[in-house]
Design a protein that fits this description.
Layout: H1 2-19, H2 23-34, H3 39-63, H4 69-93, E1 97-101, E2 104-107, H5 108-129, H6 146-163, H7 168-178, H8 183-203, H9 213-234, H10 239-263
Antiparallel strand pairs: 1-2
Helix pairs in contact: 1-2, 1-9, 2-3, 3-6, 3-8, 3-9, 4-6, 4-8, 5-10, 6-7, 7-8
């Protein structure tokens, strides 16, 4: 299982390199089902893995001029604050057993995995539906819808904090619609935002949990290697077809996790 887990770690990076996102949606299932990391801890590990990979992925985009720093700061600050507070205070405050209905216990782990699976299903639809690159928005004066950007940034931060996913599929449309960024800039900028909020969010866990650094750094290193492979492949493969295929895969995974959690709620053992 662990060997499959390490191979899957490379795939996380490849998907980030190929389609600029989606990798984070695989990280928690890989950690929970292949490495048997307890779900709440898996969301913390995921923040570190996704944050580090996105930071590496953002660098070439920055050099190509596809990172809008002003937008990254305006969207990133509320996101970073809310993800840190969520990990530091909200997640530890959720009781291990939330409710019990006729012998069916709704636990913190179950809640996290269900939330995550719902997010996967939502992400899959945005990947399957994504139209062929409506690439460039007319280059004009950027108009920032500040209240909406701050609100969306804060909401994405809370969601990231709860489920450990980067939320690129929420950030990219927001940057295109609210900040009027061209698509390529939105992808590059979102990588920088994801990196900052995920890594700072992870620091919120440091006092609360024991971290298995060997596992965490191995998976991170493989995901980063995957990004470079994905980046090379992206020059030869049509990203839109890939994105649709990946969307279907994520949809199946999301449904599998929902079924697994509801009918066989044992998964996710614990390192």
């Amino acid at each position: 299982m662990e060997i499959i887990g390490y191979l899957a770690s490379i795939l996380i990076g490849i998907s980030l390199g190929l389609i600029g996102g989606g990798g984070s949606i695989l990280t928690v299932p890989v950690l929970v089902y292949l490495f048997h990391v307890e779900p709440v801890l898996a969301t913390a590990y995921s923040l570190f893995i996704v944050g580090s990979s996105s930071l590496v992925g953002a660098w070439p985009k920055y050099k190509q001029g596809f990172v809008n720093l002003k937008t990254a700061i305006i969207f990133g600050i509320p996101s970073i604050v809310s993800v840190y507070l969520t990990r530091k205070f909200l997640v530890p405050a959720i009781p291990n057993e939330i409710a019990n209905m006729d012998g069916f216990a709704i636990t913190k782990s179950l809640l996290m995995m269900m939330l995550f699976a719902i997010l996967m299903v939502a992400a899959s639809f945005s990947m399957i539906r994504s139209k062929t690159n409506k690439e460039e928005v007319a280059e004009g004066e950027q108009n920032f819808n500040y209240p909406m950007i701050l609100l969306e940034g804060a909401l994405v931060g809370v969601l990231t904090g709860l489920v450990g996913a980067g939320g690129g599929f929420l950030i990219i449309p927001a940057l295109v619609m609210l900040s009027k960024l061209p698509m390529k800039q939105a992808v590059g900028t979102s990588l920088l935002i994801i990196a900052a909020k995920s890594l700072i969010g992870f620091t919120g866990d440091l006092g609360n949990r024991t971290i298995d650094w060997t596992l965490l750094l191995s998976v991170t290193a493989l995901a980063i290697a995957g990004i470079f492979i994905g980046d090379k492949l992206s020059k030869r493969i049509d990203g839109n077809k890939l994105k649709t295929g990946f969307g279907w895969f994520v949809l199946v995974m999301g449904i599998y996790i929902i079924a697994q959690q509801l009918f066989f709620p044992t998964g996710g053992g614990g390192h």
